[in-house]
Amino acid sequence: MLCPQVKKRRVLKSVEEILKIDIKPGWENGTKITFPGKGNKEQGAPADLVFVLGERPHAIFKRDRNDLVVIQKILLADALTGTSLNLTTSDGRDLTIQVTDIVKSGYELVVPNEGMPISKKPGKKENLRIKFDVICPSRLTTQQKCDLRRIQSDADY
């Protein structure tokens, strides 16, 4: 005698629960937040629910581990004579930075404790690194060229 096959039907039960994730300042791209036992039920036991953080690019700052990097344009005259920079930090504070060194190609100014917060050390931040882009004039007069040559011949290298 043939018996009809009986298929077991899985009944899925929808459960709604609000889970709260407190994102801590300084958490890095790829950080995993796990809610044990909050996922789908697999073979009798509920699975873990895992969220993975992703970072969105910032318009001004770039993250390098826990340092923040910013590119600052500076006029050639300011690069040679010094200047004062006004920056708004990633947390919205206004910061004034004095540049007293001569800014050369590849020069980087490090401002301690103005980078990303360190999640495992509350109250501690890494560095803000300012990389300079020196803007040179597009043209000079004959007199300006002579003045620059005179200044350059008097300079110590």
UniProtKB/TrEMBL annotation:
Q: Which GO terms describe its molecular function?
A: unfolded protein binding
SUPFAM superfamilies reported in the protein's UniProt record? HSP40/DnaJ peptide-binding domain
**Superkingdom as given in the UniProt entry:** Eukaryota
Asked if the Swiss-Prot or TrEMBL record annotates the protein with the keyword Chaperone, the reply is yes
Give yes or no: UniProt keyword Chaperone.
yes
**Keyword annotations for this protein?**
Chaperone
The processes (GO biological process) annotated in the record are: protein folding
A Pfam family? DnaJ_C
* Residues covered by the Chaperone DnaJ C-terminal domain: 12-137
Q: Which PANTHER family match?
A: DNAJ HEAT SHOCK FAMILY PROTEIN, DNAJ HOMOLOG SUBFAMILY C MEMBER
**Name of the protein described by the UniProt record:** Chaperone DnaJ C-terminal domain-containing protein
User: Which species is this record about?
Assistant: Glycine max (Soybean)
